[in-house]
Write a structure and sequence with these properties.
The complex is a heterodimer of chains A (121) and B (142). With 121 residues, chain A is of the alpha+beta class. Chain A is built from 1 helix and 4 strands; from the N terminus they run βββαβ. Chain B has a single domain, classed as BH3618-like (Roll). The two termini of chain B are 25 Å apart. The chains are: A alpha+beta (121), B mainly beta (142).
Amino acid sequence: MLVLTRRTGESIVIGNDVVVTVLEVRHDQVRIGIDAPRNVQVHREEIFAQVMQENTAAVASAADLANPLLRRPAAPPAGGVPPRKGPRLQPPSPPRPDRAQATPVSPPPEPEPEPGAPPQT
Amino acid sequence: MNAGAAGDTATTDTAERDVLYFSDGVPGFPRSRQFTLVGMSPDSPFQVLQSLDEPDVSLVVTVPWLFFPDYDFELSELEQVELGITTVEETVVFSPVTLDAEQQRIYLNLLGPIVINSTTRQGRQVVLVDTDLPVRAAVELG
């Protein structure tokens, strides 16, 4: 493991576009800021571990498929059948200017035909 | 449910159209990349997400809104891209279920929903960030 010493306000850069900054140190807590592109997943390690642990428990539960609790029909929710639901979809982010392809700021203007020019045939 | 045979019996038994592709596996079971959904009794709210790569890996799942009508989360742009999701209509969500038979109770994992693109059959277990949703939401069945 690479070990670095940093002071408050100092950063480390990981790869080309992940910046981790020590924001505050107080007692045994460190506040950390992470600036990363949206396609980099950042998780608190213990949250990820919880989901993993819960999956293991869910697999163990599947060994008990004959359990009557899993065999009973679904109780209709209060107020009738709920409408079909899904997640909210995060709106797309604007392209990051520091990473955009080298595109001209404005497209080259279309050459306009001169008003009096004869139509091309 | 369990074919009772070792090896890749499950794979050969499952029509290709029923395969769900989890390119990253699921947390805890990274080698399980292909799954299929197996129904239980017709009126049961539960289904089984059966790994085709590891026959011992199957998770009980359910539609979270059957138990938590107000369940709400945002699917990040990253996950949408990974799954090729463009509309809510093609998005199918399940919650993993754990069973506590002694307490006559089940738990839904609302923090780590399983999200499937019904068009491409790509799936991922999404670990939500910046949320207070519980990893074990209790439902009393007793």
